[in-house]
Amino acid sequence: MSALSSMKNPLVPGDATRPHAEPLQCPRCRSNEHLDLDTIESIEPHAGELLVFVSYTCSRCEVSRAHTAAFHDVAGVLNRNGTVSGLLQFGGQYFHCGEPMQFAQSSVRSVYAPMSTEDVDDGLLDVYVKTRVIQCRCGFRMELPA
Ligand SMILES: [Zn+2]
Ligand SMILES: [Zn+2]
C-alpha cells in the first residue's frame, strides 16, 4: 500500500509571510505537458513573486493536484496549451506575459484626439474617461469598459 507520505506535513505556524510555491507537475508522469488547469485563484497579498492557488488535472494520468504556485509557471502552462493567447483574467485583474497588466492612464489617445494644442471640448474628454486602457510591459494593450 503506497500511502501519500506527504500528507503528514504539518502546517508550520508563523510561516505566513511567504506561501510555499510548488512547480506545476503531474505527480505520476512527472511532467507538465498534459495539465489542464481547472481553477486559478488569487491568494492573500504576499511579498515577492506573484503567487496564485491553482488546481489542475493531468489529462493523461487523470491525477489532480491543487497547491500554491508561481503565476509565471501557471501562465507558461496556459500559454503552451493555446487556450489563451497570453492573456489571462482572474481576481479582477488581467495578466499578460505572466505579469499583472497596469493601467495606462496618461498616454491614451484615440483617432479622434485633436493633434493641436487647442483646448479640448469637455464633451469630447468625457469619451476618454469611459474606457480604461491597460498595458503590459511588452507593449500589449487592451481597452476595458469602465
Ligand atoms: Zn501525468
Ligand atoms: Zn505582454
Q: Could you describe the 3D structure shown?
A:
The protein has 146 residues and is α+β, with helices and mostly antiparallel strands. It has 2 domains: 19-96, no CATH class; 101-146, no CATH class. The chain has 2 helices and 9 strands; from the N terminus they run E-E-E-H-E-E-E-E-H-E-E. The protein has helices spanning 71-81, 122-129; strands spanning 35-42, 51-58, 63-70, 87-90, 93-96, 99-100, 102-103, 131-135, 141-145. The structure holds zinc ion (2 copies). One zinc ion binds next to loops. One zinc ion binds at residues 26, 28-29, 34, 58, 60-61, 63.
Please state roughly what percent of the residues sit in beta strands, choosing from under 5%, 5-15%, 15-25%, 25-35%, 35-45% or over 45%.
Answer: 25-35%
Structural class estimated from helices and strands: alpha+beta
Question: What would you call the shape?
Answer: globular
End-to-end separation:
56 Å
How many strand segments?
9
Kindly state the mean pLDDT as a whole number?
73
Q: Helix segment count? A: 2
What percent of residues adopt helix (DSSP H or I)?
10-25%
Runs in which pLDDT lies below 50 for 5 or more consecutive residues are 1-9
Cofactors, ions and other ligands in the entry: zinc ion
Compute the gyration radius: what is it? 21 Å
Helix-strand topology string: EEEHEEEEHEE
How is this fold's topology laid out?
Blueprint: E1 35-42, E2 51-58, E3 63-70, H1 71-81, E4 87-90, E5 93-96, E6 99-100, E7 102-103, H2 122-129, E8 131-135, E9 141-145
Antiparallel strand pairs: 1-2, 2-3, 4-5, 5-6, 7-8, 8-9
The structure holds zinc ion (ZN) (2 copies).
Organism: Paenarthrobacter nitroguajacolicus
Region (Disordered): 1-27
Protein name: CpXC domain-containing protein
